[in-house]
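Reviewers asked in the last cycle whether our approach scales beyond single polypeptides. To address this, we selected a multi-component target totalling 801 residues and predicted its structure end to end. The input consisted of the following lines:
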Amino acid sequence: MSVNEYLNLFLEEAREHLQILNDELLKLEQNPADKGAVDEIFRAAHTLKGMSATMGYEKIAELTHKMENILDELRESKIVFSENLSELLFKCVDALETMVENVATENSEKFNISGILNDLKNFNQKDIGITQNHEMGVNNKLELNDYDHNLIKVAQERNFNIYEIKVEIAPECVMKSVRAFMVFNSLEKLGEVVKSVPPVQDIEDEKFEKDFIVVLITDKTQNEIAKVLNQISEVEVKEIGSLGLINGSTPQETNSVQEISSFSKTEDAKKGINNKISQTVRVDISKLDKLMNLVGELVINKTRLEQIFRTNDLSALNETAEQIDRISADLQTVVMDVRMVPIEQVFNRFPRMVRDLAKELGKEINLIMEGKETELDRTVIDEIADPLVHLIRNSIDHGIESLEERRKKGKPAQGTLRLSAKQEGNSIIILVEDDGQGINLEKVKSKALEKGIITTNQLEQMDENSIVDLIFSPGFSTASQITDISGRGVGLDVVRSKIQSLKGNVAVESKEGQGSKFTIKLPLTLAIIQALMVKVGPEIYAIPLANINETTSINLNDIKKVQDQEVMVLRNHVLPLVRLAKVLEVPNMDNYESEELFVVVVRKNNKFIGLIVNELIGQQEIVISSLGKFLNGVPGIAGAAILGDGTVSLILDIGTLF
Amino acid sequence: MGERQIIAFRLGQEEYAINIHDVKEIIRPTAVTRVPRTQEYIKGVLNLRGVVVPVLNLHKRLGKSEENISSQSRFIILNKGDIIIGITVDNVTEVIRLREEDIEVPEFTDEVDGEFIEGVGKYQDRLLLLLDIEKTLGMEKVK
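The resulting structure, written as structure tokens, was:
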């Protein structure tokens, strides 16, 4: 592994631990008596400290270390969880987040932590007083509790050896905790470490003088253990003694049965933890992309084989084609599966964000999240966060009213924000709903007129839905008060264009006084899509099926002109037409003039437009390839697809085509 | 003084050369799909074993006459930085070890393709125009 790979691993894990810190702090804030949360926070901070110290990020290590001190006091109930403390801890987490992100972008923490360290120090003195008196591993006397006794008893019955091992670490050793860690590591390979004095945590923190005691359950002999341990440099085994029979513990039949079950229970509990850890599988996205390319090629070859079959009629070949068809379908499913990531990754950050925003605006908000387990393609996950943040901010800022206003309206003081995700066929639906004031139609109308987005004439012909939809127009922002939270000229149009770039769409429903609901619809994956292949002159293009409303044929004579715009009448509606050959600057179109043409009706921003093409080839599953860095961003072209005969066909991007 | 390995190719009347490190492979011309709304010298994209690769019409880029397609025509696939791109050439001649002291940087005054040449190499009795790939590919590629 190169340093870079370590760095990536560090960043990924650091972000995970930061997420845990945030989550658990929120939990603790809800329920200050939650000891489990304190433990989780402590653990996350501790791991983060270790990781960053290993990687040489001293500031992160120092800050987490100081955090740990406070958390330790909290854990031992020497201090109580207060609002001040929660603010302070959140501040620490924010600082850590900034540092980790700085590491990601600039490979250095670049952050001044002196201020926050001071805060931590002051807090320590103010709230804890002088109870800070760490006993440094003086009490090296083995004391076993009931649980330990039970374990040992059961182990004895199973003919395991139980040893009490006293290990001494050379006084000149610089990194005692590392040596200790190696001792534990080796011992755990030999058997099960039941207890240590001082506790493992303290040993890891180097809170011991030079020796410590470990109790080990194993089937190995004393000599074997001593041999293994003495191989570790700067470590010496002082004593190994059999813990033997514990006084006054004559085993009883009934008891031991019970205890065996308790023994296996602890093992189960351990397994449970392991299972939980192995649930998250990290896969390098570039490896997945390679796999995806392979699948792409397989799909191409499949089509090739089908063509050979059509021309030569070899039944054996057909069989092969069927096989490949099956394999590629399976492979596709599996690979897609690996690429899928639960939307939880995005949702996780919202509780903290909503809390902060609500505090800042003096509102009370209950955030309900549903369908966190819904899975989305990794590429979509990375892109969907920003639009969601925007919508949530929007709802909290403009949607949900102030406490006072809500009281006046007879609504519960606490506003509700519901964020949900679910799968529907080949799409993912994400809803952002609030029970706020909804969208004021009159305000939208006057704003749209004022900003020159539409004319009075147009407005008269619009139904309610289309009017509400105007809030997605570029340059539209109804907040009369510009706040930090949302509305700074960049409006919902950004949300819509982002989602459209993901081949999805966003719509809004609103009931005045009752709230609004934003619906985001996204395709499950971006890698393989259904497309309609069309011929424009000599060239073949792919139009994503998601954009297409219908297709129809047209006679050249049926094309009418209204104010220089070609139109046709389709079921009593006027449909504007666009000649693809013209838009795509197809050369030598003169050779392809014909009486009969085809029209592909596509949807763009809730408007229908007919694209004139020469021929409809048919519907096909295509693998989207990028045009590469060199040709990135050609307007109207979403990418390329390799067809069955090996030629490349371009995929049209309706959003930017005209 | 060191030497560099170059691949020499013909383009119209002239002989050009590029550093062998920038060359991924050399292929016979295959079907190229035109990409609308790009510069005129973008020939299009091709399928290189499942990867879509853009092709630059070097004749047009260097202001030469139309490429003259023959059985000798080749696409040289370049790999420069993280960009993979093909260029059209009339004929790939040979791989040459060129000594650094045989490279001169002349001053081009009114030559059309002067800005894309980083030097002229003298090899036996031939003059090889060393193409500056980064400048040739340019950054202002999309209209």
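DSSP finds two helices and eleven strands in chain B. We regard this as preliminary and will revisit it once experimental data from Aim 1 are available.
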